[in-house]
Amino acid sequence: MNDETAPLNPEEMLLWQSLGRLAHALPRLLEGDMSRATGLSMTEFAVLLTLGQAPERRLRMSELAAATGLTPSRITRVVDTLRTHGLVTKERHGPDARGNITVLTGSGLDRLQAAQPAHVASARHRVLDNIPADLVPTVASVLAALTEATLSPPDHPPAPENGAVPTA
């Protein structure tokens, strides 16, 4: 048995099960908080926030999808909804007009700024107030590294279990 298949020790099991529960419950709770307070979904808020932080408040659709962790089809649907409400616009990118750029409108910026207090209150209530202040930098660093490792493409595919060389 190698390290990858060894049973989890009690601390690892607690971490794994707690992370699983959190991964299932937290999005639903944050979604409810945001929707009740602002009428925006967390996904819509994340798109507005990402655009609000981007240079000139604009990003290519592929960059926006990557920055928010959404699939290309999901980001298209979210942007189309936001565009219907006048919160973003879409422009063709470059001289060859391939790809789109999403631009935060003035109304979108206003909506983002109005929603930020509710977002911060939810983040504090649901997460930050439950982590001792002296541990926040460590937890933030660990979660950032975990997110990067999870969402980044692997450098190489995993080796087969039996050590055999894969064939095409």
Task: Please describe what this structure looks like.
With 168 residues, the chain is mainly alpha-helical. Helix content is 59%, strand content 8%. The protein contains six helices and three strands. It has a three-stranded antiparallel beta sheet. Helix 2 (42-53) packs across helix 5 (106-126). It is globular. It starts with 9 loop residues before the first helix and ends in a 17-residue tail after the last helix.
Quick overview:
By secondary structure, the protein is mainly alpha-helical.
N-to-C CA distance: 27 Å
Query: What do the pLDDT scores average to?
Result: 89
Strand content: 5-15%
What share of residues is helical? Answer: 55-70%
Largest sheet at a glance? 3 strands, antiparallel
Across the major sheet, the strand order is 1-3-2
- Morphology call: globular
What's the number of extended β-strand segments? 3
Cα radius of gyration in angstroms = 20 Å
Based on helices, strands and strand pairing, what is the structural class?
mainly alpha
Count of helical stretches:
6
Low-confidence stretches: 162-168
H/E series:
HHEHHEEHH
Entry keywords:
6 helices, 168 residues, mainly alpha, 8% strand, globular
What layout of secondary structure does this protein have?
Elements: H1 10-38, H2 42-53, E1 58-60, H3 61-68, H4 72-84, E2 88-92, E3 100-104, H5 106-126, H6 136-151
Antiparallel strand pairs: 1-3, 2-3
Helix pairs in contact: 1-5, 2-5, 3-4
